[in-house]
């Protein structure tokens, strides 16, 4: 990968992760042999735990195209891609003065969930919570059945 223009703009977490992977970063225990600095490996370790790990370039490009109808700033689009908000509560701090700008926030959240795809780590953690909750319900009903 060649740098065509230095300081062309901010990068998404996906682009940084893609760059680190192209330079040899991985979760492989032999990654010490990769030509990466320790700080780059720490960045890689962080990014593989974020939404960037599961994103695809096609989805990001489609999302950027869809955002043109919402009159969002470049920084807002970048933050949405990096943070991947899935609810109104999560997107509210990202959209600056959303009430004044007639941004259709509910519609935007639906589009984010459709185009950027759900984060697998969130769905698996919510499944774990559901299993844990059902176990707690069983424990709560057990003593009342004994009475």
What does this structure look like?
- Belongs to the eukaryotic RPC9 RNA polymerase subunit family.
- The model is unreliable at 122-147 (pLDDT under 50).
- Helix 1 (13-22) crosses helix 2 (38-47) and helix 3 (57-67) packs antiparallel against helix 6 (105-115).
- By secondary structure, the chain is mainly alpha-helical.
- It is 56% helix and 0% strand.
- Among the domains are: 13-49, no CATH class; 56-120.
- It is elongated, with a radius of gyration of 20 Å.
- It starts with 12 loop residues before the first helix and ends with a helix.
- The protein is built from 7 helices and no strands.
| Low-confidence runs | 122-147
**Mean pLDDT level:** 75
Distance between the termini: 70 Å
The number of E-state strands comes to 0
Order of helices and strands: HHHHHHH
What's the tally of helices? 7
Q: For the CA atoms, what is the radius of gyration? A: 20 Å
List the helices and strands and how they pair.
Blueprint lengths: L12 H10 L15 H10 L9 H11 L6 H10 L4 H4 L13 H11 L4 H27 L1
Quick rundown:
The protein has 147 residues and is mainly alpha-helical. It contains 7 helices and no strands. Among the domains are: 37 residues, no CATH class; 65 residues.
Please give a handful of descriptors for the protein shown.
single chain, 147 residues, mainly alpha, 7 helices, 0% strand, elongated, disordered C terminus, nucleotide binding, DNA-directed RNA polymerase III subunit RPC9, Rpb4/RPC9
């Amino acid at each position: 990968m060649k740098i065509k223009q230095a300081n062309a703009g901010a990068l998404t977490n996906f682009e940084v992760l893609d760059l680190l992977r192209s330079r040899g970063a991985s979760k492989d225990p032999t990654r010490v042999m990769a030509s990466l600095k320790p700080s780059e490996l720490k960045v890689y370790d962080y990014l593989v735990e974020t939404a960037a790990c599961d994103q695809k370039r096609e989805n990001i490009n489609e999302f950027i195209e869809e955002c043109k109808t919402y009159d969002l700033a470049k920084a807002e689009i970048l933050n949405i891609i990096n943070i991947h908000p899935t609810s109104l509560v999560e997107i509210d701090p990202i959209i600056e003065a959303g009430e004044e700008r007639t941004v259709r926030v509910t519609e935007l959240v639906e589009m984010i969930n459709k185009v950027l795809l759900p984060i697998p780590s969130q769905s698996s953690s919510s499944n774990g919570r559901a299993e844990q909750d059902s176990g707690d319900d069983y424990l709560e009903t057990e003593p009342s059945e004994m009475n």
